[in-house]
Every structure is written in structure tokens, then in C-alpha cells.
Design goal:
single chain; about 210 residues; alpha+beta; 2 domains; 5-stranded antiparallel β-sheet; 4-stranded mixed β-sheet; 4 helices; globular; binds zinc ion
């Protein structure tokens, strides 16, 4: 990570180990978004070879002077706003990631407090076999009412309520999403994802 950073997930690209390019406008021909990250790895010790491989993430790449130690080592390229652009299916609803991201990063903190990484959806295996979701809210956010949170989700622009009318009714009736107050889970790479599939993610280290 970069300190001081402008974005909560801002880091430096270690360009001696990995090459990252983005397709830009040319990508549309291949179904790739403008800012898709295409990785090639350069480390001689890597266990597998990647050449322009997409892992379904997009991000912003930029160069700026930040003055941190990574810059001093020659890693001057910054990466931030890392997103998965794949569709998310959770508890019977299909969301477009950008909608979920906007709600979690902007709409919920704007209404209930906290910051862009205070909220996360975690998929749970429900006992009845039907998926359930936890909305993990960092304790730095204010008081949360489950019904209000769910309505905020379903009423935000881009929500799938028109195509999944039955499911959104179920969501609104309650029991599908529950609110948990704790720090968001991180992935193996330490990234805080917006939606964590069942069985993935781990609690942040408390060391
Ligand atoms: Zn930096």
C-alpha cells in the first residue's frame, strides 16, 4: 500500500515482477472493458506463466509523485480502484458489480456513516440450502436498520429489482440479508472485496 494515498486501495505496481496493460477502446472487440487488467508475469521463480491474462478485474493505473518508500525504490506506477467487473449472483439475485460497489462505497456510507471500505456483502450457506447474505458493516459506521439497508440496496439506481421482482420481494420481507457489525473480511491477497462468496475470505489479522 502507498502512504500517503488518495484512494483506500491505492498501491504501487511492482513492474519488475509483473507487466500490466489495459486494452482501452480496442478491448471492446474482445468483450473487455477499457480498464481491464491484463497480466504477464516476469518473475523467473513464478510457478506458472501468464501472458496478458485477465482475472476479471479492472483498475486505474496512474503515475504520480507520492514520496513514499516504494517510489524511492523505483516503483512509480500506482494502481487503485481495483474492481471485479464480473456479475455477482448472491442469494438468488444477480447484481452487476458496479451497482454493488456504488452502493457499498458511496450510498451506504453517505447515509449511515463510515467510509468506502466499511461495508461488504458476505455470502453465507443457509441451513435451508437457500443462500443468505451478511452485510458486514464496520463498527465505524453508525446505527443500521436492516430493513432500511435492504431498501437502500434495492432502491439504488441500477438495482436488479425489475428483472428479479420475486427475489426482491423476498429480500424486502427479510431473512435474506442480515447485518453484522465487524471489520470486513480480506481475500488471500489482502484485498477487501465487495462481495465475498461462501467459504472465501478471512478475518483481518489482529496482530
Ligand atoms: Zn506511494
Amino acid at each position: 500500500m502507498c502512504q500517503p494515498c488518495y484512494y483506500p486501495d491505492e498501491g504501487h505496481l511492482l513492474h519488475d515482477l509483473v507487466v500490466v496493460i489495459q486494452p482501452g477502446l480496442d478491448g471492446s472487440e474482445f468483450g473487455l472493458r477499457l480498464n481491464t487488467l491484463l497480466f504477464s508475469n516476469l518473475a523467473p521463480t513464478a510457478s506458472f506463466l501468464l501472458i496478458n491474462a485477465s482475472i476479471g478485474d479492472e483498475a486505474v493505473l496512474a503515475s504520480r509523485d507520492c514520496g513514499c518508500g516504494f517510489e524511492g525504490m523505483g516503483w512509480t506506477r500506482h494502481i487503485h480502484s481495483i474492481r471485479s467487473f464480473e456479475k455477482l449472483t448472491a442469494a438468488g439475485m444477480t447484481f452487476v458489480d458496479s451497482h454493488v460497489v456504488r452502493v457499498l462505497e458511496e450510498v451506504l456510507p453517505g447515509r449511515f456513516g463510515g467510509g468506502p471500505i466499511s461495508f461488504q456483502l458476505v455470502e453465507e450457506e443457509a441451513e435451508n440450502g437457500r443462500g443468505a447474505l451478511s452485510l458486514v458493516a464496520h463498527p465505524d459506521a453508525g446505527p443500521l436498520d436492516e430493513t432500511e439497508v435492504i431498501n437502500t440496496f434495492l432502491d439504488a439506481p441500477g438495482a436488479p429489482s425489475t428483472t428479479d421482482a420475486l427475489m426482491s420481494d423476498l429480500w424486502r420481507q427479510g431473512g435474506v440479508v442480515r447485518v453484522e457489525r465487524r471489520a470486513p473480511l480480506t481475500s488471500q491477497s489482502g484485498k477487501i472485496g465487495h462481495l465475498v462468496p461462501a467459504g472465501h475470505g478471512r478475518a483481518p489479522s489482529t496482530e
